[in-house]
Amino acid sequence: MTISASAGDIDRRLLMDRSVSGRKAFTLPESDVPAQNLPDSSFLRDDVELPEVSQLEVIRYFSVLSQLNFSIDTNFYPLGSCTMKYNPKINDELSNLPGLADIHPLQPDETVQGAIRLLKDLQDDLGEITGLPGVSLAPLAGAQGEYAGLLIARAYHNAQNDSARTVAIVPDSAHGTNPASAAMAGLEVVTVRSDDQGNVDVENLRELANENTSVFMLTIPSTLGLFEPNILELTKIIHDVGGLVYADGANLNALLGLVKLGDLGVDICHSNLHKTFSTPHGGGGPGSGPVMVTDELAKFLPKPVAEKIDDGYVLATPEMSVGSINGFHGSFSIAARAYAYIKALGLEGLQSVSENAIISANYIQAKLRDKYDLAADRYCMHETVLSATRQKKRGVAGLDIAKRLLDFGIHAPTMYFPMIVDEALMVEPTESESKETLDHFIAVMRQIDDEIDSAPELVLDAPHDLPVTRLDEATAARKPVLRWTAEL
Amino acid sequence: MDPEDLKYSKEHEWVRMNGNIAEVGVTVFAQESLGDVVFVDLPEAGTDVAQFAKFGEIESVKAVSDLFSPVGGKIVEVNAAATDSPEVVNEEPYGTGWLIKVELADASQLDELMDSATYQATLE
Do A282 and A248 sit in the same domain of this protein? Predict the structure, then answer.
């Protein structure tokens, strides 16, 4: 047999396929305690196949896999709505300091005063940034922040003896988590239309708002990357019928130091620290979705809330708290990273974060608008929603363009969202990228548009040069293979 | 071209009448816009559905969408082929890819629907 030379090839075998019976990665020391029989071993299985490999084989397997990853540290990643901005490494360094990393959530408050002070300072900063001073860092993700916010709205209405409010009004452009969170919180979801400018249809909202309205959930800026010019009227409509306004702060990175949500009439919001405040996400996070409220609603916040008392800091339970929404204090190490980011930038720095994010998105929009349709023909905020409708008429869909971008080392934009835009390609460059990177992306997008006419197979069959090419997503979804078997 | 003997809704569903039984499916435009259909969720036979009300969900590689019944009445049959092998919705949306059969409550409901030429015009 001849072995072909191919040093650049990737060993594609799964860990199970490398398994050799009896091989070990680690040898346990002799047991120095008496063996115990389990009282009932009937629930133990012996039919589970596990890989038997050496430590070096495990290291190689996962090292190679990690190098296949497409990440913000290796590639431009304009994934709209997800805000894949640079995660400064100093944030990781700070959160790994022993005083922050080597503490336990059940330690007495007096032994972790610095950590609780960090939470309190972060609460204060988020309250200042959003104009909503009551803050709980407990929610572990954006959707849990939404859920906590809706529980607060319900607790508020109940406390007013106004428990007949059962409806959440959600725009048709909303992220799917909004109606899902509302349903989880026991609310009925009613959809308000967008108008032809991509704004919430004011008259439609007026028709839908009534004495049953518990809360109106609005993403600011919207999922189309647009600022709502009628925001003050929208919040007034809801307040006039006794409802509360919930702002989905997923796009807060466009507003830092520019607009306070509280000044717009928002009562409750959440922010995704893993987007706006540069903490890691993608590949599982962990996320963090603090919830911010007006002074009036602060007594309903989920516990714990860090508070300053005369001689130090404590973790407290607000007077009419909706309770715990997870085991402990939220994602503490993520809070530490966000704290580092905010303190490093300061107010002026945060303001230029948003300004640069907005300028970058508008630069891309202006340079591509002759080739790609826009979801809304106006200045955008931190992201621009392109539509590949012109390209689709020429035989290439948004999906094909997204796949072709991979050949140029650019992560695909968010596709087919928001769902009210045909062939949506949602591009969010973030403030982190240089003008050279933006120009490269623009040039690639223009070249792909040319290829549709000159060499369409380049686009239709993309990607060409990655470890895996076009995947059969339909078969993967229709006939999923979820367990390894030797026959595969 | 969509078959001329069918009626169409603006939500891209079609109706084929056979006596007072309305066969319902999604249009070619709908299945092309959705992309490869991977899952279809339909109600049990015997449930009632109102005209233009949601009766199920269709999931493609792109997104999950609600299915709206172009007619109201009792659902007398659901297409097991569509739930077992969702690809039939892509392959034959006007044939083996039908979704439900509804015993029509009121024939005047059909006046609320479009003929094929009018439906085609809405797609331009």
Answer: yes
Q: ipTM of this predicted complex? A: 0.76
Contact with chain A for residue B38, Cβ under 8 A: yes
Cis peptide before A88 (omega within 30 of 0): no
The domain in which residue A338 lies consists of 89-345
Interface of chain A against chain B, CB under 8 Å? 399, 415-416, 419, 422, 473-474, 477-478
| Strands A188-192 and A167-171, bridge-based pairing | parallel
Quote the minimal CA–CA distance from A416 to chain B in Å. 7
* Residue of A399, A419, A474 lying closest to B38 (CB–CB): A474
Look up residue A197 and give its DSSP letter: T
Whole-prediction pTM: 0.89
B84 close to A (CB below 8 A): no
pLDDT digits (tens, 9 = 90+) for A378-424: 999 999 999 999 999 999 999 999 999 999 999 999 998 888 899 99
Chain A residue closest to B84 (CA)?
A478
For A166-243, strand residue ranges (E) read 167-171, 188-192, 213-219
Report yes or no: A190 and A210 within 8 Å, Cβ to Cβ: no
Residues A25-84 have pLDDT tens digits of 988 899 999 988 877 878 888 778 889 999 999 999 999 888 888 889 999 999 999 999
CATH number at residue A429: 3.90.1150.10
Q: Is A14 a domain residue?
A: no
A145, A229, A269, A397, B101 from A264: Cα distances, Å: 20, 11, 12, 39, 50
